[in-house]
Specification:
heterodimer; A: 383 residues; alpha+beta; Gyrase A, domain 2; Alpha-Beta Plaits; Elongation Factor Tu (Ef-tu), domain 3; 3 domains; 6-stranded mixed beta sheet; 6-stranded antiparallel β-barrel; 19 strands; 21% helix; globular; B: 129 residues; OB fold (Dihydrolipoamide Acetyltransferase, E2P); 6-stranded antiparallel beta sheet
């Protein structure tokens, strides 16, 4: 058997928590140019900790971009597909930036701090690309010129992010947070004090469980991480790596950029039309997306579970009889359901729930069934 | 890490136990540890042929898919069907309950190419540095 060894990791970036991960015995891998923990004790054990008690994740590799100024709202309305004007202060929304052809630049969270100050949380792999794209769009936005009163700052290198997810995350975090967390609803946030340092705490996550994401300055990250782990013992906390982060998000069918969504797929194909607000006015990609909507989709991102043996993996072909009808974009053995599950794009004609498809696993066609998603249906997100 | 004496090893991290002229094959403690939680094992059918250093099956962890290479040539005469329902046994008992296939060898000289427990231990130490 072939075991892929840790490659030459020398040129990769490290988060302020790198040494803390080493001390915890993490296995480190290259992810999007970062040396990140893929697992500590084991993916399945970590996955279950999040579903049953609480897990703590270092997601400091994620990018943060600030947009400040009188035209911040206008710029964001033009750049993103969701409607920023629906946000109140201290609320955030899931959104996407698209190219003019409707392909996805990135999927993001838009945080509204004030009417003139926003923060975008973007994927690590896309942070530089997104920043450049926003700068370029500053000039392209208006017939009369650029958005002069919107300042764009990439603050990824000064901010860390710690995520705590699972039903025990609120009581755990409340121990060291000055504001009352019970009043913070899903997709809301508060600027508060966590463990003696300033932090932005949002009730958000990528797991399908109740949880929080804590943005703080790099120099404060290790202190807060260690305190949460220490106090967390009482709450059955486990540090969780990117391996379980992936199985947790996949059980919810949350898309992963680069796998399930990309510049070659649109929000509509990905089943994210609920984020795409055509009635808000012009935005980059609107025309193409509207055309796609009117013309009808040709393919769609579906979720399926294997009824035969085997585990679906990214890039496996999807068949219906002799005809190839699509491709798997993500797949795994679901630790919560103990079933092999996957997502992928298939031709619209066969995308109905209940339909039988086959996955080409190493040359053999194994049966699967299209199912409703999320796969994991006991989500505890507090609305 | 446990590499029992008496077994033979490959650089691809399989082990072989020779009993009554037959070769029992599995993956090493190092391999199961590197792979992490094993969730699926695909094995050939009894009666099929295997060739030394060619893939004969697949082992999957949550994140990875890895080929299994046969240390010897011959015919599959036994398959551990328990692994279908309980692949995690490869993690908990790699040399015993986690065995994978049994091969009736066609060329016992191939065993000479394999590593002893000492040689394999040294190899793993070098590789993991």
């Amino acid at each position: 058997m072939n075991i892929v060894n840790e490659q030459n990791l020398k040129k990769l970036k490290r988060t302020p928590l790198y040494e803390a991960h080493k001390k915890l015995g993490a296995r480190i891998v290259d992810f999007a140019g970062w040396e990140m923990p893929v697992l500590y004790s084991g993916i399945i054990e970590e996955h279950r900790a999040v579903r049953n008690s609480v897990g703590i994740f270092d997601v400091s590799h994620m990018g943060e971009i600030e947009i400040v100024g009188r035209e911040a709202v206008k710029l964001l309305q033009f750049l993103t597909v969701n409607d920023v004007t629906r946000l109140n202060d201290n609320e955030c929304q899931y959104s996407m930036m698209c190219y003019p052809d409707g392909g996805i630049v990135d999927d993001i969270l838009v945080y509204k701090l004030t009417g003139e100050k926003f923060m975008l949380c973007v994927n690590a792999s896309n942070a530089d690309k997104d920043y450049q794209w926003i700068l370029k769009s500053l000039h392209a936005g208006k017939p009369e010129g650029m958005f002069r009163n919107a300042e764009v700052k990439n603050v990824s290198d000064i901010l860390s992010q710690i995520s705590i997810q699972g039903k025990n995350s609120e009581p755990l975090l409340q121990n060291i947070t000055s504001d009352d967390l019970s009043v913070i609803k899903h997709n809301r946030f508060v600027l508060t004090n966590v463990g003696g340092v300033n932090a932005l705490v949002s009730r958000t996550g990528y797991t399908g469980e109740d949880g929080f994401e804590i943005y703080l300055k790099n120099e404060n990250a290790e202190r807060v991480w260690n305190r949460l782990l220490e106090i967390g013992k009482e709450y059955d906390i486990k540090p969780v790596g990117l391996g379980a982060r992936d199985t947790l998000r996949l059980e919810m069918k949350y898309p992963l950029y680069g796998n399930d969504i990309s510049e070659k797929t649109t929000p509509l194909e990905a089943g994210l039309s609920w984020v795409t607000k055509f009635d808000k006015g012009n935005f980059i990609g609107r025309e193409s997306l509207l055309k796609q909507k009117k013309g009808g989709l040709k393919r769609k991102l579906i979720g399926f579970e294997m009824t035969d043996k085997g585990i679906p993996r990214s890039h496996y072909s999807i068949f219906k009889g002799a005809e190839q009808v699509g491709e798997v974009t993500s797949g795994t053995m679901s630790p919560s359901l103990n079933k092999a599950i996957g997502v992928g794009y298939v031709k619209i004609e066969i995308s109905d729930i209940g339909n039988e498809i086959e996955i080409d696993i190493r040359g053999s066609h194994q049966k699967a069934r299209i199912v409703s998603t999320p796969f994991y249906k006991s989500s505890k997100i507090k609305q | 890490m446990d590499f029992p004496d008496g077994l033979l090893y490959t650089k691809e991290h399989e082990w072989v136990k020779v009993e009554n002229g037959k070769a029992k094959i599995g993956i090493t403690d190092y391999a199961q540890h590197e792979l992490g939680d094993i969730v699926f094992v695909e094995l050939p059918e009894v009666g099929s042929g295997v060739v030394a250093m060619e893939p004969f099956g697949v082992v999957e962890s949550v994140k990875t898919v890895s080929d299994l290479y046969s240390p010897v040539s011959g015919e599959i005469v036994g398959v551990n069907s328990e692994l279908e329902a309980a692949p995690e046994v490869v993690n908990t008992s790699p040399y015993d309950k986690g065995w994978m296939v049994e091969v009736a060898m066609s060329d016992k000289n191939e065993l000479k190419e394999l590593l002893s427990a000492d040689e394999y231990t040294k190899y793993v130490e070098e590789e993991s540095q």
